Amino acid sequence: MLSTYFNWEADKLSDLFKNMDKSEIKWLHDCDYQYISLKEYALFKRVYGKKDIERYQSDKETFGLSFMELMKLIRKYKLRYTHSLNYLIAQNDKYRPTDRIKIRNDWSMLNIWTDYLRFAKELGYDMKNEIITHPKELMQAHDKAAKTVAAIQRKQAEEKAKVVNAENKKKYAFEYAGLRIVIPTCPDDIIREGEKLRHCVGSYSDRHFSGKLTILFIRKITNPDKPYVTMEVRGKKIVQVHGYRNDISKPLPKSVKLFVEEFKKYIEQPVKYKKELEKEKARKTA
Question: 156 lies in a domain?
Fold first, then answer.
């Protein structure tokens, strides 16, 4: 908000800018306000710890467009300002030794450091230890932390998938007229379904295993491993049902449509459906 930087009730120019003395206001005036972000300069004073116009200009010239993001990183993790700037320059030189000037437009090492610090915090590392926050080999530390985080996330996803699968089996297990519901057990199942049937269900994998929606396979009882028709369900609502290439060249078979109608009755009122089914079986065996 502009009120953070301006005192709108000021009677004179020297009182208009908050937290800025006369020398800083003169500097702004001499710069004709060009290329100066009050927000950026205010953040600089906060992370650097004091007013230093020459230092601000020098560092902004060195880091260019990445300067603001670098200062945000320093503030977020409470890093030492000068040490952190020198560290990023050193890491940049290490991997781009002949390209120092391009640090103005090179966000790659800053992005790598940002990701590494996020990984380190997620993994519970001591973020007050500069050996942790400023590793000697940033790229190696980043890759190692990324692998560890990925392994943890994979394990969490597998545990989540087990829960989702158990719930789906309990809720959606169904057979009717030669067809049955098959529950995908892992992301590869959904990806393979999309590849075989030439439609986009593979992109639904993450949402399925996060519980945002449910992907079900309609298969022939005589060939349950062969992709046939795919169905998306959300709670008790059937969202879409598609076969090969989204049924563009060939409509869904009547048997599939009848199956879907019957399945719809089942998921809307499972208890009632099962009781009626038991009654029907009893009647036939009587």
Answer: no
Q: Are strands 214-220 and 175-176 parallel, antiparallel or unpaired?
A: unpaired
CA distance 7 to 92: 41
Q: What is the pLDDT of residues 150-193, one digit of tens each?
A: 999 888 888 888 888 999 999 999 999 999 999 999 889 999 99
CA distance linking residue 132 with residue 117, whole number of Å: 9
User: Does 124 fall in a domain?
Assistant: yes
What angle do the packed helices 108-122 and 67-76 form, to 10 degrees? 20
Q: Are residues 276 and 195 in the same domain?
A: yes
Could you tell me the residue range of the domain that residue 126 belongs to?
37-148
CA–CA dist 169, 166 (Å, integer): 5
Q: Shortest CA distance to 193 belongs to which of 251, 137, 246, 149?
A: 246
Query: CB–CB of 183/235 below 8 Å?
Result: no
Burial class (CB in 10 A: 0-12, 13-18, 19+), 55: middle
Q: What is the pLDDT of residues 243-258, one digit of tens each?
A: 999 998 889 999 999 9
Q: Look at the chain and report how many structural domains it folds into.
A: 2
- Asked whether the whole model's pTM tops 0.85, one would answer no
Residues 200 and 109 both lie in one domain? no
